[in-house]
Amino acid sequence: MIQGVKRRVTQNIKYNDSESYTFKPVKLVIILLCLGVFFYVYTNWQSLLEKLDNRPINAFILTNNPSYTTYDDVRDSVLKMGGLKGFFGQDIDAVREQIETMPWIKKAAVRKIWPDKLSIAVIEHQPIAIWNEGEFLSKEGEIFQLPMDKLEDKNLPHLSGPDYQSTKVLEAWHQVNANLTEKGLKLKAVTIDDRGAWQIVLDNNLVLKLGRGEWKAKLDRFVTIYPQIEVPENKKLSYVDLRYSVGAAVGFADIDAN
């Protein structure tokens, strides 16, 4: 009796193993089928989404009241992309990148509004100085372009120099301006040349040539000698050269007829 029971148990175990081996190929086929479907969707998801669209995006709203960017600016920029796709098919990163090609745009954010609109917000560079007479500087010292007709305050400082020196020139402006303000003078422009020599212009267009190196002692010297400079009749003081260790050289120009 005991041997008979053992034989029946052994037969049952063999039968269950046979079922397990039969199930494994079916399981593998299901896995491969799922992987195939996933790969197809992954490689064709954009075209699949586009098939869900029945009309293209045809409007947008410009939020956060930017200072320099108008509705027409954004529209003209987006039109350069050609026609937009629909709500599901349109890549908003492509729209964002296109808007950020406007040189005064620091960053843009774009989102979709059902069924056919975009919401666009922009962060702009804020000009605090004119750079090399054709561009602008932000408070971070970044150089950017902005149409002059968009600028309300045209009485910005004029800063000049090699582009890689923009941050250094901006820092010098703040320091020199503070120093001159204490002396009752107003600063108009700051320039550094390729050799590292500094030159500043006061609000009366008087040029001060400071040269390289330390400049505070030179400004102190200018304040001392400025009232003592005798200007010839029908002339005006054009520049004061302070690049010497002692004293200064001066230059004169004819007074404008008007």
Q: What this model shows, in words?
A:
Pfam families: FtsQ_DivIB_C (PF03799), POTRA_1 (PF08478). The chain has 258 residues and is α/β, with parallel strands linked by helices. It folds into three domains: 24-50; 59-124, Ubiquitin-like (UB roll); 127-254, 3-Layer(aba) Sandwich (Rossmann fold), CATH 3.40.50.11690. Helix content is 36%, strand content 24%. It has helices at 2-50, 71-79, 92-99, 166-182, 216-225, and strands spanning 59-62, 105-113, 117-124, 129-131, 135-137, 143-144, 158-160, 187-192, 198-202, 207-211, 235-241, 249-254. The strands form two sheets. Strands 6-5-4-7-8-9-10-11-12 form a nine-stranded mixed sheet, covered by helices on one side. The longest helix has 49 residues, at 2-50. The radius of gyration is 36 Å and the shape is elongated. The termini are far apart. Residues 1-15 have low confidence and may be disordered.
Secondary structure blueprint with pairings:
Layout: H1 2-50, E1 59-62, H2 71-79, H3 92-99, E2 105-113, E3 117-124, E4 129-131, E5 135-137, E6 143-144, E7 158-160, H4 166-182, E8 187-192, E9 198-202, E10 207-211, H5 216-225, E11 235-241, E12 249-254
